[in-house]
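Re: that chain you flagged

S.,

Sorry for the slow reply, it's been a week of failed gels. I finally had a moment to sit down with the sequence you sent. For the record, here it is as I used it:
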Amino acid sequence: MKIDLTQFRQTFLQESVEQIATMESGLLALRSTPDDAEILNAVFRSAHSIKGGAGSVGLEALARFTHGLENLLDRLRSREMALNEEIVALLLASIDVLRTLLAAEPQAELTDEARHLAERIEALAETPMQTQVEREAGQDGQDSDEAPIALYRIEFRPDREIFSSGTNPIVLLRNLAELGDVSVSELHAENLPPLAELDPEHCWLGWTIEMASSRSEEELREVFEFVEHLAEISIRRMEPAASASVDEIAPAQGVRAEAPAAPPGGSAPVAKARATPARPGSESTSIRVATEKVDRLIDLVGELVIAHVMTAQMVEKFTPDCLPKLRESVAAMERNTRELHERVMAVRMLPVGTLFQRYTRTVYDIAQATGKQIRLEMSGEDTEIDKSMLEQLGDPLTHLIRNAADHGIESPEARIAAGKPAEGTISLRAFHRSGRVVIEVSEDGGGIDPALVRARAIERGLIVPDALLSDEQVRMLIFEPGFSTRTEVSEFSGRGVGLDVVLQNVRQLNGSVSVSSETGCGATVTIELPLTLAILEGLLVRVADRTLVLPLLSVVETVSPRAGQIQRVAEQGDVVVIRNESIPLLQLRRYLGLASRAETDAAARSLIVVVEAGHKKIGLVVDELLGQQQVVVKSLERHLRKIDGLMGATILGDGCVAPIVDVACLANMNFYALEAGFRDLRHDVHAPGSTKISSPSGEKGESANAVV
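Prediction finished late last night. Pasting the structure tokens below so you have them in one place:
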């Protein structure tokens, strides 16, 4: 009876992605600390885990390739070889092959490139140890002492349910045989039932192995490390044989365990198991959740069910004297629901360190290709963010890292001439601020020259020559499509694409991007994002006859302006002066087309809500505060289109739809252009079948920034 390995293969693939990430980060760390045995052992364990799992789930090509990789890593950790840049580069190339094999079909074979790489690894792993020792010592070439040989007796009694985990005991025995010379292999079949009672899905056999090996007991036990809970395993060292070699130990009486011959290339034999190929697109994502989080969720659901039953009973037998108890029950349901929401959202939160790890390799590749010396520093890896947002951050951060390494960091010669260390530094930092996640990408390179950016923007037609822009606005031009300061196209830059993707993707996540720089000292790009896109705390406000939601985390304060506190600036727009700080005002009535200019000016400016996005503050003029409420964010783009100034909508308790204001989008608008171009938009908003909220210029989908 064939066992369907599909479900086990999917779990193996998910775990292997983490193992490969561990190997990659470990290899890059070994470049600076090549003698760190702990890191090298971790890399070896990851390769060993992938090899063992690949054989169990029928990924033969992956198992063969990883076996050769494991041999090389084993020689490195046993100090038979010295780690150098050439070996690190070879191992990193192997990481790319492993990723390709994981994404391939189960029956896929090695490509020519992967086969050539496997041959290089095999040739390097078979380099005589004496040559390596002589190269390191540089002395008289004396033979190093051979590792002592020991005789081991191994008892392996698998549990009957071991097949259900996708484990093939024969594969484990073959892996064990590769670590020494097996002299005795005794099969135990005393528990085997009659044929009529035999269940082929259960394992009824056991084995006793005697073998000579130079490996330690811990290394032999690693063969069974993934089935220790599914088998009785005993490894006992017998008579020592320190002066003997493997070939000098005579085979004992018994049945010799002959492993099948290795295929060309020296790869180890693996279990052959056929399984149904996974259909493209059938892979499902998953999140690892701590048991205590799940237990707490179960407790909360139980409390919620109890509160619901109590409420339902009181409603069914309602009398006026039950009203206080009913209110208490509803309040209990509200508390439990809110806590349940917080716990569920905590399940979706993942540390950004899982994303940061991949950029060590990105920086390494660019440094190797450009001849630069670059170090990547990371901090705040434990900062958590919603899983869906973490996945969408991958491309923006990749573009920022590549831009920092290629554009920002100078060549070693230029850095030394400028009085800097030859090695440049790129910093990735994550932290929480005001209930939002902040990610900073910094580099200590030459910085962003506003004059150069302005000249290139004029050359490419992005701005007019006489545009009045601050240095901050000029720096933000690097995020415009088609902008590049490079005159030649390279592998990493020069085409004018990349950073515009950063701004677009971050805004889709309801976040903001800002740039700070000092010429000659580097630049910092700051991304601010909400913790999650699903549910947020909102401040409900009334504007004319409409209800809007402002994200509470963006609200700084509410002000009822006094006479003279609102001032006109050059007849172009209004600002409110709060504690000697001038904050631009936006009339939501006119922006949303709910009133004409005359009607808005005539209305009393009774209340201003000051909101903040990044380092920018704006004042939103509203008619009334309605209260605070937790709202579920619904996308408008699925049914309508992207509307500037709105991140989505929510459904209120009375069934009405309330738009949710996109504070980051409003903060990036040119308010003077808005004020100059305001017109009556009521026709656009209220026309039958129309969902368009036009910008002041009247062009569909145009950002209100009139200077870019």
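What I noticed first: Confidence is low (pLDDT under 50) at residues 130-145, 240-284, 675-708.

Talk soon,
D.
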